[in-house]
Amino acid sequence: MNLQDFCQSLPKLELHAHLNGSLGTDTLKKLYKMQNPNSEDCENIITNVEKFSSLSECFKVFDVAHSLTVTPEAVFHSAYDVIEEFNADNVIYLELRSTPRAIDGQMSKQEYIEAIIKAFRLCKTDFPDILVKLLISINRKQGYKSAEENIDLAINFFKKYPQYIVGLDLSGDPMTGDAFLELLKKARIAGLKIAAHCAEISNEIETKDILEFKPDRLGHCTCVHPNLQGSNKLLDMLFTSKIPVELCLTSNVRCKTVPSYESHQFKYFYEAKHPICLCTDDKGIFHTSLSKEYAIASSTFGLGREELVTLSMLAVQYAFATAEEKSLLLSRIEGFSCETNK
After folding, report:
1. What is the CA angle 163-168-172, rounded to 5?
2. Residue 304: which residues within 8 A CB-CB, separation 6 or more?
3. Residue 114 annotated to the active site
4. Residue tagged active-site, from 95, 114, 200, 246
5. pLDDT of residue 64
6. pTM assigned to the model
7. Of the candidates 327, 325, 290, the residue with the CA atom closest to the CA atom of residue 311
8. pLDDT over 70 percentage in the chain
């Protein structure tokens, strides 16, 4: 097998995927047609999604996807299609994350979450090879009241659907809003795992606060190393914490939070043997897949195939899955490794 085929065949875990950012072109067109059955103008929607050249512009692209997911039916189709595509990429465990939204007269936040759960249930039958979980997100930009509502929703849905709802995600534009750490503490006490976007931009005070809070996983940690607008103090804090970091190579390069693949923080964390996992972030927006991210890591940082298998195996440890689920996931990766080494 060539590298791309190997990476596609490798059973993988996706631990950082935003639902709306993961919508593929065909799904966006389908959702547009659902809203505008008599319109032929859906190509402009796709063109708009592809135009961005910075982190701030990337967040504006989300508005396109959000404008198309305004009913429970649209949310259901979005979740179902995204799961189907990850399954086709041989992802055996997927944690989707999404911020519940209420649309006047069309959908409540509760209905938004229920629509995703409905898709999970159907996919369990249609795609039995992929195990799917949900992290309910709080968006920095939407303020304290919305964050509090979403955390209460997450706690209630966690009690109702513990097999699907496993954690809380702190996300949204890092240039606006708060980290809501006191609210995250409430979710942690209730038993939810915490994944927090951290240091996407240079903000030493907030990064220090998040690291001291000790989430179960961290997203990006771009501006931690002193060569990437961080500091030795932050780097020491991160390495001492041993908190796993979700790394999204293409996302960071496309949003220009790092100048190139070669300068990505992956190399610093990997060389230091800090816990990391490769992720896509928003595979639809960035036109990537988890297989591509593994191939990029291999070709950029000189990782051999055994090292790629090890990366996938280690990701099992960091998943918000049960011990039994982790054991089954690990056995599938080990089975692949044994088969390819024959």
Report:
1. 140
2. 298
3. no
4. 200
5. 80
6. 0.95
7. 290
8. 94
φ, ψ (nearest 5 deg) of residue 212: -70, -30
Find out whether 44 and 63 touch, Cβ atoms under 8 Å. no
What is the rounded CA–CA span in Å between residue 219 and residue 46? 27
* Tens-digit pLDDT profile for residues 90-148: 999 999 999 999 999 999 999 999 999 999 999 999 999 999 999 999 999 999 999 99
How many other C-beta atoms lie within 10 A of the C-beta of residue 44? 10
Question: Among 181, 246, 187, which Cα is nearest to 211's?
Answer: 181
In whole angstroms, what is the distance from residue 311 CA to residue 270 CA?
Answer: 10
CA dist 284 and 123 (Å) reads 19
Residue 21 has pLDDT above 90, yes or no: yes
Asked if 297 contacts 332 with a C-beta cutoff of 8 angstroms, the reply is no
Can you give the three-state secondary structure of the chain, one letter per residue? CCHHHHHHHCCEEEEEEECHHHCCHHHHHHHHHHHCCCCCCHHHHHHHHCCCCCHHHHHHHHHHHHHHCCCHHHHHHHHHHHHHHHHHCCEEEEEEEECCCCECCCECHHHHHHHHHHHHHHHHHHCCCCEEEEEEEEEHHHHHHHHHHHHHHHHHHHHHCCCCEEEEEEECCCCCCCCCHHHHHHHHHCCCEEEEEECCCCCHHHHHHHHHHCCCEEEECHHHCHHHCCCHHHHHHHHHHCCCEEECHHHHHHCCCCCCCCCCCHHHHHHCCCCEEECCECHHHHCCCHHHHHHHHHHHHCCCHHHHHHHHHHHHHHCCCCHHHHHHHHHHHHHHHHHHCC
The single-letter code of the amino acid at 162 is P
Strand 91-98 and strand 217-220: the pairing is unpaired
Cα 12 to Cα 165, 220, 230, 264, 311, distances in angstroms: 20, 19, 30, 21, 9
Tens of pLDDT, residue by residue over 177-225, are 889 999 999 999 999 999 999 999 999 999 999 999 999 999 999 999 9
